[in-house]
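Narrative summary of target 7.
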Amino acid sequence: MRIHLKDLAVRAGYKSLVTLGAEVGLSQRAIYMLANGKAASIKLRVLEELCRRLSCRPNDLLELAPDKEATQHQNEAR
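Modeled conformation, tokenized:
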């Protein structure tokens, strides 16, 4: 999963992820983990708030990327 939080935050005029995190109820650690793809999950309430503040849709924020194992199996099948 790829997270486009940093790019969307900059486009929305946020100079700090900490500010955005505070507005949606996330700690500094939690917003940085999410932005760096280290978060294991995200609450729907937080996803909704992020999308509202960043004027985006969930699929703008989150991108399903093929994992390495799936890609390797596809290449082996060819």
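The radius of gyration is 15 Å.
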